[in-house]
Task: structure prediction
Amino acid sequence: MSPARLMRWSGWSLMLGGIAIVGHYLSHPPGETAQFTLYPLWEMSHWLGGIAWLLVLFGLVGVYLRQSERIGVLGLIGFVLAFAGSALDAGGEVVFGAIMQPVIAGLAPDWLNATSPFYVSALRPALGVINLPLVVGFLLLGVVTLRAGVFPRAASGLVILVVPIGVAALASVGSSFQQVLQILVGLVLGAGLLMWGYALLPASHER
Result:
């Protein structure tokens, strides 16, 4: 595959991934406990999230290749972490979110409470393994991309901005602000990825 075609496919993949992420966060119920897991939209939302992160995964390849000579080792580290985090999140959304969590909610709903031994000793560490490379990777990639100036600065700024919003959303779990911050994460990240993806299309290079 030629570099130009790879960039084009990466751009479309990233744009579709950004749109799917917005759909995932808009459709996600406002919580993670058993009562929310049994909502009708739960499984569909997590399948959509898994597909979104797979699309982002392929889109990130184009983002890195387009500016690899300008972002150095720090950019490579950010790309690898964001890539690994996206892959882990794609698997987590489908295997745990869409498949296992509804089963657990039906058979042992108390396991999904934030104070349960399962949540504290198994689920919380697993979420940390998934989210840490994702957050650090996108933060690094957003910063070096902003400095490189190859992609629109607004897009990179949005990708960076989603990190403090996401941390605030995690800190507000169980509060009335959780769903608002959750939706804001999806809108901001989705818009940033959509703009990155559009910048990879040939038509945007000719302007």
